[in-house]
Design goal:
The protein is mainly beta and 537 residues long. It is globular, with a radius of gyration of 24 Å. The protein is built from three helices and 41 strands. Bound molecules: calcium ion (CA) (4 copies).
């Protein structure tokens, strides 16, 4: 339910007051209806990967809650109120209403330009389950609701309910009957088989906005093995390749679900937001070599926000990009069964702060990268910018770091490849080398690696090389080193050459870091708390 005014807010509280018979949990804020004061002992104010902690009081004035006072406060662990500066949203895991047993989840949004800062109420929901909303069906046990078919109106999935995906759950029609699916912090979605998946169609949006203490979780029923459910698929209107020459805009059928189409001409297309999201135990082979991945992004555009997303123990790839321009930060890809990051069909997006960690029991490449298998020179050509990656291989199985093939371009900056049983980096296929340049003294700029450490059993490999070898290409560019990066787990150890190193990054999306790898040092905690327990060890 979306609430816009104080009268509606009060009505909602009155309705919520009637909800009884539940176990009250510790409130994170208290609302006094007699004074209109909302008292918040702890607010984490997020600024990218950084957080500061304050206490605050909000005062109801008309239809808004106005910031009346705030002060510094000590950081706490556990459930807490979070303000996300990137989305201007203030999330309350629970607000206790004085004089009652009521606790409510609340989401407030800043009034743009307000001074003093004022908020409107975006959501107010009981923290306990009462009944399944009309867009869902009652699940097998109380507190569970089943989603199926196509959602054609804006709905919110709340944390008071466990949401069960039954079959393909589609948000919107294809560029028709479009809808926005909002998913609240701490909400859990469960698929029960490989054909249970969530699919956001072109023109629709997913707004999955978790918080560090309350990530959104998409998982399987037993959380024991890869492939317990399908995964998350997002389709957008950004450019892709794979059409016949001259067909613009290019639109392509998804290999795994061939009735679905993706791609278009909108570089800045916006499919919504994924923030503090875990996708685990997903993946399904619909046919051999045509799979649902943990997160599949089909022609997703640069207007989409992807930040703090983990794909853990997927059956196929962690994230697979089919073209598009989507840009992401803070990705954690752990224990995936095929490639951790896979792209093709002309992906021209970006990613920074990427941790890839392979398991000992399964896995293929850290990165498997194509332009297009049928036409290695298809346009637009894949050429993502990848900065501050840490790729950790396994000695348990024959895994490799990155294979750049089938004409792909790439710009790798300030990254580290370590511990792969096979090679760290391979260039593969004549079209890939030719796109990269005629020789290492005449590189095109479309296939580059800089400020990067490699430390594998075999650092480099080649296939059908022309003009240069991967080793020559690596050695010819700035700041690259073959040697021990001195890692301690995922972090640089004391004395590591990764700290205070790297080349300058000049980009409007990627930060200019002065270090190599996903983490600045052992105190860089961006992957703490919201990720799957023990998955980084
Ligand atoms: Ca795949
Ligand atoms: Ca793959
Ligand atoms: Ca593979
Ligand atoms: Ca692939």
């Amino acid at each position: 339910m979306k609430l816009k005014s104080a009268s509606v807010l009060k009505a909602a509280i009155a309705i919520a007051l009637s909800v009884t018979a539940y176990q009250a949990s510790a409130a994170t804020a208290t609302y006094d209806p007699s004074t209109g004061t909302l008292d918040i002992p702890v607010v984490d104010v997020l600024n990218g990967a950084q957080a500061t902690t304050i206490s605050a009081k909000l005062q109801l004035q008309g239809d808004k809650l106005v910031l009346a006072s705030f002060d510094n406060a000590a950081a706490v662990s556990g459930k807490r109120v979070t303000f996300d500066g990137a989305t201007n949203a203030l999330h309350f895991p629970s607000v206790k209403v004085l004089g009652s047993d009521t606790e409510l989840y609340a989401k407030l949004k800043i009034v743009p330009g307000s001074n003093p800062i004022a908020f409107t109420v975006d959501q107010l929901e009981p923290t306990v389950f009462s009944a399944c909303p009309d867009f869902s069906a009652q699940g097998p046990i109380s507190g569970t609701c089943v989603l199926s078919g196509e959602l054609n109106k804006d709905v919110a999935l709340t944390a008071n309910t466990t949401w069960i995906l039954s079959g393909g759950v589609y948000v919107g029609g294809d560029r028709a009957n479009s809808a926005t699916l909002t998913i609240n912090p701490g909400t859990e979605l469960i698929g029960e088989s490989g054909l249970d998946f969530l699919y956001i169609r072109r023109g629709s949006k997913i707004m999955a906005e978790g918080t560090p203490d309350q990530p959104i979780v998409m998982t399987g029923p037993s959380e024991l093995s890869r492939g317990e459910w399908g995964g998350l698929v997002i389709a957008g209107n950004a450019p892709v390749n794979g059409c016949a020459e001259g067909v613009l805009p290019c639109e392509v059928a998804f290999e795994a679900i061939t009735t679905e189409t993706y791609g278009g001409s909108d570089i800045a297309d916006n499919s919504g937001l994924l923030k503090y999201v875990q996708i685990k135990y997903a993946g399904y082979a619909v046919r051999p070599n045509e799979e649902l991945n943990g997160l599949t992004m089909l022609g997703v555009g640069a207007g989409t926000v992807v930040d703090f997303v983990q794909v853990h123990q997927g059956l196929d790839d962690g994230i697979e990009m089919f073209g598009g321009t989507v840009q992401a930060k803070h990705l954690v890809l752990t224990g995936n069964g095929d490639d951790s990051l896979d792209w093709g069909s002309g992906w021209r997006g970006k990613a920074q702060y990427v941790l890839i960690k392979q398991a000992d029991d399964d896995g293929d490449l850290g990165i498997e990268a194509d332009n297009n298998p049928d036409n290695n020179d298809a346009s637009p050509r894949s050429q993502p910018l990848l900065a501050n990656m840490t790729l950790l291989g396994s000695q348990g199985i024959e895994t490799e770091g990155a294979k750049f093939r089938r004409g792909t371009g790439v710009n790798v900056i300030n990254s580290v490849f370590s511990g792969f049983a096979g090679y760290c980096v391979k260039l593969d296929g004549a079209a890939t080398y030719i796109n990269g340049g005629s020789s290492v003294t005449a590189l095109s700029g479309e296939l580059t690696i800089e400020g990067t450490y490699v430390n594998c059993v075999t650092n480099f490999s080649d296939k059908e090389n022309t003009g240069f070898t991967t080793a020559e290409w690596f050695a010819a560019q700035a700041g690259n080193v073959s040697g021990d990066p001195l890692l301690n787990g995922i972090f640089p150890a004391v004395g590591s050459p990764l700290v205070d190193q790297g080349v300058t990054i000049t980009d409007n999306f990627a930060d200019n870091t002065n270090y190599i790898g996903a983490f600045k040092d052992a105190n860089d905690k961006w992957a703490d708390e919201w990720t799957v327990t023990d998955s980084l060890k």
